[in-house]
Amino acid sequence: NTRVPFGTELPRITAWEAASQALGSNRPVISNVIVGQVSNRKVFNVNVPVSVNGQNRYVLIVTDEPPRIARVLVEQGLQQDWRSAVIDGKGEIIASDEPMAASTGQFPVGALKGNGTVETVLGGQDVFLQYVKSELSGWTSVVWAPIATLNAPTDALWKTLTAVSLIALLASSALAFLF
Fold first, then answer.
1. Averaged pLDDT in 10-residue chunks for the chain of 179 residues
2. Secondary structure of 53-81 as H, E, C letters
3. Under a CB-based contact definition with an 8 Å cutoff, are residues 85 and 70 in contact?
């Protein structure tokens, strides 16, 4: 563990289930968010099986913290009113660019299974939400926006068409009156 001096005795790993899955497979396994025993902060582990003579003998564990994921979300530069979050397999928010969601710790929309879309209420607003579950990590990526924001271009188009129609009607009525 690079957080402590070389040779320091380490505690047993917290996310043993993910490490065990990695040992039993030939693919990386990503844990849910846990509190690291050495860092005493929220972390997640990327568990990679290490093969010796064709047999998985060890697990290399790379630990990272949720703020790295949050930076990636913020860097996406979503349009105003659009929000995003990453949720682990337990439903805990790993990272979000939405302060309300990040502060609650749990995503307010029940268990999202698989991939899909849903209209729901978040923070008192009707929103359209789309989610995709990663096969590798079991985490879910979520993007949402208020329905009013999504309908705004259509509403503006209807207002413009209505205004143009009224102007055309008034102009044709005025011309009819003159002739």
1. 84 83 89 86 91 90 88 79 85 76 52 75 80 86 84 72 81 85
2. CCEEEEEEEEEECHHHHHHHHHHCCCCCC
3. no
